[in-house]
From TrEMBL, chain B:
<dbReference type="InterPro" id="IPR000515">
    <property type="entry name" value="MetI-like"/>
</dbReference>
<feature type="transmembrane region" description="Helical">
    <location>
        <begin position="280"/>
        <end position="304"/>
    </location>
</feature>
<keyword id="KW-0812">Transmembrane</keyword>
<feature type="transmembrane region" description="Helical">
    <location>
        <begin position="90"/>
        <end position="109"/>
    </location>
</feature>
<comment type="similarity">
    <text>Belongs to the binding-protein-dependent transport system permease family.</text>
</comment>
<keyword id="KW-0472">Membrane</keyword>
<dbReference type="GO" id="GO:0005886">
    <property type="term" value="C:plasma membrane"/>
</dbReference>
<feature type="transmembrane region" description="Helical">
    <location>
        <begin position="121"/>
        <end position="142"/>
    </location>
</feature>
<dbReference type="Pfam" id="PF00528">
    <property type="entry name" value="BPD_transp_1"/>
</dbReference>
<feature type="transmembrane region" description="Helical">
    <location>
        <begin position="26"/>
        <end position="59"/>
    </location>
</feature>
<keyword id="KW-0813">Transport</keyword>
<dbReference type="InterPro" id="IPR035906">
    <property type="entry name" value="MetI-like_sf"/>
</dbReference>
<feature type="transmembrane region" description="Helical">
    <location>
        <begin position="219"/>
        <end position="247"/>
    </location>
</feature>
<protein>
    <submittedName>
        <fullName>Sugar ABC transporter permease</fullName>
    </submittedName>
</protein>
<keyword id="KW-1133">Transmembrane helix</keyword>
<dbReference type="InterPro" id="IPR051393">
    <property type="entry name" value="ABC_transporter_permease"/>
</dbReference>
<feature type="transmembrane region" description="Helical">
    <location>
        <begin position="173"/>
        <end position="198"/>
    </location>
</feature>
Length: 274, 312
């Protein structure tokens, strides 16, 4: 065996061990959530629960309205994602294909907004929502999420790579703007739309700051806050908290494994194009 | 802005030039761009201006606001807690950038050199897994992992001969612990960006350097890093901006700013002032400070970028 081969084996070993260390907290989380309460927190840790139990999961709904919160999270994530993708596609078409007075100036103004942190606008938005009577409504979470400057920018970049000759040919055939956008550009932009869908959905699903500020009614609450209120210990044991975290984390991991390629591509392309 | 030269082709971009058919373009423009622009004005531009106006007032959201001029900004100058929060935030952001760039680059180089497909898939997936999990779940999980009595992490750290402190009650260890947790959660993002950047470096170039007798270190330093500088630069900007706005993990793990305010970050301070103490005007001036710092850092980074980023 040459030194180079040995080096390669060593590198593989080091990286695989590192991968295992990265996964260790998640594996521990899942095992603990399946361990019966009296055995939980044994040291050294029980990596394989013995005996298996689902009891901890049954305890979650006694402490928080888990399913209601999951539904709320889903509603917010679906509306913000679908809405912001539609708004962004329309705007990107305008900025990429139409010529109207002030187009470039409006676009630059939008780009400057990429630098405005959410925290700066949150107080005025809170006051606005209060005046609209939307505090403690899910709309307070998804309405502001409909404007996503990054995805407008991203779609415009993508549209700009699609030859305009195609539009002209379609126009000559009598196609209008709506047809060109939804029947031609959108089908050609699959990867870009997938990337932005994944990123927006993830951001809305995991949002903690928004619900913390706008919501207080447990029936209106989303999952991230639900989890954190569990921690405050409302008579529930730690294993139930473990089960709740597992119930939130495992579906996300499964979805990620299924869409891994698109997910990683979305981050990579955001990095390369941004 | 004068349309003296007729466009060669109707589809050519000419900024804002009213042309024949301009009215229909304007109508279409307002239909397509209108919704985004309206939302932008309501939820970004309007609140942005409102935050600047609010910073000139004293207001508790209940009694009428009173104009106070620059009083809030003057008060900021002698607010020790604000300096503390700023200091913590800078430490967190700088530590984040350094550990992410070095870690992300090394991991990308390592995974890129793997020959086994299975190992490569496993390492990529396990590095990226934590990134898809919400901060709420990550923060709670790590609170348990590092728990002094039953934490799995504490147990193994003790096993390898390290005597871990009680992380979140020890003022000198709370912030480093959160820096570490942030690394675990977010390194997958930096890693993927670095890996994508690495793949844009032409293989022949690295091969040519190898043939010329350059060792691994020389190839890294003289070929790979210069070629990847746009990616590294982008990752630095994104990491810094994200880290500077850190809120979720510190708020969840150390709700009141941690022992001796050692984990109080600037956004957490803004949240306390605005939504717990109801000092809306003061919180708005803190928000403006955050914006100004981010704008300056971004401008500086672009200025540096012109001097050292390799342009292909």
């Amino acid at each position: 065996m040459t030194g180079r081969q040995l080096g390669r084996i060593a590198l593989t070993l080091v990286l695989v061990v590192l991968g295992l260390i990265m996964l260790a907290p998640l594996i521990w989380l899942i095992s603990e959530s399946l361990t019966k309460e009296s055995d939980a927190f044994d040291l050294p840790p029980n990596w394989i629960p013995h005996p298996f139990t689902w009891a901890n999961f049954r305890g979650i709904t006694d402490l928080i309205p888990f399913w209601r919160m999951a539904l709320n999270s889903l509603i917010v994530a679906v509306i913000s994602t679908a809405g912001s993708i539609l708004v962004s596609l329309l705007a990107a078409y305008g900025f990429s294909r139409l010529r109207f007075a002030g187009r470039e100036r409006i676009f630059s103004l939008l780009l400057v907004a990429l630098m405005v942190p959410v925290q700066m606008t949150i107080i005025p938005i809170f006051i606005l929502m209060r005046n609209l009577g939307l505090v403690d409504h899910l709309a307070a979470l998804w309405l502001p999420a409909l404007i996503n400057v990054f995805s407008i920018f991203f779609f415009r970049q993508y549209f700009n790579t699609i030859p305009r000759d195609l539009d002209e040919a379609a126009t000559l055939d009598g196609a209008g703007h709506g047809w060109i956008l939804f029947r031609m550009l959108v089908p050609l932009s699959g990867p870009a739309i997938a990337a932005m869908t994944i990123l927006s959905f993830e951001a809305a699903w995991n949002n903690y700051f928004g619900p913390l500020i706008f919501l207080s009614d447990p029936q209106k609450m989303t999952l991230p806050i639900g989890l954190v209120t569990l921690q405050a210990g409302q008579g529930g044991s730690s294993v139930v908290v473990f089960a709740a975290i597992t119930a939130v984390v495992v579906p996300v991991l499964v979805v990620f494994l299924v869409f891994q390629r698109a997910f990683v591509a979305s981050v990579a392309s955001a990095g390369l194009r941004g | 802005m004068t349309a003296t030269v007729a466009p060669v082709r109707p589809s050519r971009d000419i900024d804002g030039t009213p042309r024949a058919g301009g009215r229909s373009q304007w109508l279409a423009g307002s239909i397509f761009v209108g919704p985004a622009l309206l939302l932008f004005v309501i939820f970004v531009l309007g609140p942005f201006i409102a935050a600047i106006v609010l910073s000139l007032f004293s207001w508790d959201m209940l009694t009428p606001a009173t104009f106070s001029g620059l009083k809030n900004f003057k008060a900021m100058l002698s607010d020790d807690l604000l300096y503390k929060a700023l200091g913590n935030t800078f430490v967190f952001a700088l530590a984040s950038v350094v550990t992410h760039l070095i870690g992300g680059l090394l991991l990308a180089l390592g995974v890129d050199a793997l020959r086994s497909r299975a190992a490569s898939y496993f390492v990529r997936t396990s590095l990226f897994f934590p990134f898809v999990i919400s901060w709420a779940a990550v923060a709670l999980l790590w609170k348990y992992v590092l728990d002094p009595t039953f934490g799995m992490g504490t147990y193994y750290l003790t096993k390898i001969g390290f005597n871990p402190p009680d992380w979140f009650t020890d003022p000198s260890w709370a912030l480093p612990a959160i820096i570490g947790i942030d690394w675990w959660h977010t390194i997958g993002f930096t890693f993927v960006i670095m890996l994508a950047g690495l793949q844009t470096v032409p293989g022949q170039l690295i091969e040519a350097a190898r043939v010329d007798g350059c060792g691994w270190w020389q190839r890294l330093w003289h070929v790979i890093i210069p070629m990847m500088s746009p990616t590294i630069f982008f990752a630095a900007v994104i990491t810094f901006i994200g880290a500077f706005q850190i809120f979720d993990p510190v708020q969840i793990i150390t709700p009141n700013g941690g022992p001796e305010n050692s984990t109080l970050t600037i956004v957490m301070y803004l949240y306390q002032k605005g939504f717990q103490a109801f000092q809306v005007g003061y919180a708005s001036s803190v928000a403006i400070l955050v914006f100004v710092i981010m704008a300056i850092v971004t401008a500086l980074q672009f200025w540096f970028a012109r001097r050292w980023v390799h342009q292909s």
